[in-house]
Write a structure and sequence with these properties.
The protein has 250 residues and is of the alpha/beta class. The protein contains seven helices and twelve strands. This is beta-lactamase.
Length: 250
């Protein structure tokens, strides 16, 4: 009976320890997988930042970009998880000793615009197209502080870029951003990664217009060095043609 008592005590002690270890590992690895910020150099002064959001148990990556100018940092699209709004600013300042001085979104979905209000409160000017501005209002998303009504060229410090609206696709308002000197095309969610085997979220898409939009885009920017899609891998510069291929076999 005494030996059974000792065995019972060991079992009683072991179970809480095991439970604690499992809880700790779940917490640690869960946090490691969700709400993290990844910054990857693209070219001189150009960086892709990827944030992650848990959507019904699936961790989903979102690509955005920032550009370092001699006056400050240009932010193209915001994180969509509020836990990364400030860490992104902190990481940028730590790396480059420069603040973010400009933020622009490429369409109205919250994976592009979620940080607008936070960044406005930080004194960062926020921009979108007028169509994006109106769709944000219609859908209850945060609007930019400023908007532009046609394709626009921005000169910020020593960096120059243009916005271009080729037509509807992933959404009615999706624009792209082109850095002509570096031949970098930031496509956002209008362009699908070569890793994608489908068009993804098409809840607000115009599937009839998207193909024509892509053909127009390919004609305007036929030889980009880099093409940055809104989600998943961005290493291939063939993403525009891949998107067109997905559309023509839909």
């Amino acid at each position: 009976m005494k030996s059974n008592g000792i065995a019972q005590n060991k079992k009683t002690f072991f179970l809480p320890v095991l439970f604690f270890m499992l809880l700790l590992s779940e917490t640690f690895f869960g946090q490691a997988a969700v709400s993290k910020l990844k910054i990857t150099p693209l070219a001189d002064d150009f960086y892709i930042y990827t944030t992650y959001k848990d959507l019904d148990g699936t961790v989903f990556p979102s690509n955005s970009m920032y550009v370092v100018s001699d006056k400050g940092v240009i932010l193209i699209d915001t994180p969509w998880d509020e836990s990364e709004f400030q860490p992104l600013l902190d990481s940028i300042y730590k790396r480059h000793n420069k603040p973010v001085i400009f933020c622009i979104a490429t369409h109205f979905h919250d994976d592009r615009t979620a940080g607008f209000e936070y960044y406005k409160k930080k004194g960062i000017p926020t921009y979108s197209s007028k169509l994006t501005y109106d769709l944000c209002q219609k859908n209850g998303n945060v609007q930019a502080e400023h908007y532009f009504e046609k394709d626009t060229v921005f000169n910020i410090g020593n960096k120059k870029f243009e916005t271009y609206y080729a037509g509807a696709g992933h959404t009615q308002d999706n624009i792209v951003i082109w850095f002509g000197k570096q031949k970098i095309l930031y496509g956002g969610c209008l362009i699908k990664s070569t890793e994608n085997e489908s068009l993804g979220n098409i809840a607000d898409a115009d599937l009839n217009a998207w193909e024509g939009t892509m053909r127009k885009l390919i004609k305007k920017y036929p030889k980009p060095h880099y093409v940055i899609p809104g989600h998943f891998g961005w290493e291939s510069n063939k993403a525009m043609q891949h998107t067109l291929n997905l559309l023509t076999k839909k």
